[in-house]
Write a structure and sequence with these properties.
mainly alpha; two-stranded antiparallel sheet; 6 strands; 46% helix
């Protein structure tokens, strides 16, 4: 049932998005470095890796510059057009192709890079690879303002992700796996849309009962920050045949 819904919704959404997608592709081709898409290796169901698609929003050599694989607020590696795409999440829409291919589902734990996957507790790793990763999920909703958190935390971005974000995201994804249903998925889709216009909203805590409690705000203690945090990983991969490796 869920696979049929994934195919129907993603195909319909892709057709509706096509005109705007062509405009975005043309603008990206004519600006920045001329790159339209990039693909990044992510960990999928049963630990099988796949290439996650996005519209290009950063400089091609971003992983070798600045903070490496970590994206921070006002990151100079983000292209002007890319900044708008990231803010509106339009850069993520092409992942509907991943949903059609069967790499992902519309809702599920967000797909992780190999590096960030290793930061999660082993018990959480075993659980999240039992299902397909999602185009959106509880982590996307709760951590909508994640890049701002890193800037406020006063911590090194990678350390912030490893010590604060990964444990809490792991708890959130475990909550989703314990409570997943069509009704919960529908709520998460609606909350994702709402979070784009109201990134600091706490509506999710009212609509989704029993969520793990977030740690205190990092603004209260800059030495031991906790709370909603951010880690966005860059790193362009050439488009090509889907890899078969696992982690």
């Amino acid at each position: 049932m869920k696979r049929l819904l994934d195919i129907t919704v993603s195909l319909t959404a892709l057709l509706l998005f096509l005109p705007l997608g062509l405009v975005i592709a043309a603008v990206l081709r004519l600006t920045g470095e001329g790159e339209v898409f990039y693909a990044q290796i992510r960990v999928g169901k049963d630990r099988r890796c796949f290439r996650l698609l996005k519209f290009a929003t950063m400089l091609k050599d971003s992983p070798k510059m600045g903070t490496g694989t970590v994206t921070v607020r006002n990151d100079v590696r983000v292209l002007p057009v890319g900044r708008l795409l990231r803010k509106t999440k339009l850069n993520e829409v092409v992942q509907l192709i991943n949903v059609l291919k069967g790499d992902m589902s519309l809702v599920g734990p967000r797909p992780l890079t190999r590096q960030t996957f290793r930061y999660y507790p082993k018990a959480v790793q075993r659980r999240i690879v039992q299902v397909k990763p999602g185009l959106t999920g509880i982590g996307s909703v709760v951590f909508r303002d994640e890049e701002d958190f890193v800037a406020r935390s006063g911590m090194d971005a990678l350390r912030c992700y490893r010590e604060v974000v990964a444990p809490y995201k792991g708890a959130l994804e475990t909550w989703y796996l314990d409570h997943r249903s069509l009704w919960v998925d529908l709520k998460l889709v609606l909350l994702t849309a709402f979070a784009i216009v109201a990134p600091h909203s706490t509506l999710h805590s009212k609509l989704l009962k029993g969520l793990p409690q977030p740690p205190p705000s990092p603004c209260h203690d800059r030495q031991r920050p906790a709370g909603r945090a951010s880690h966005a990983v860059t790193g362009n991969q050439p488009l090509g045949k889907q890899p078969k490796e696992t982690v």
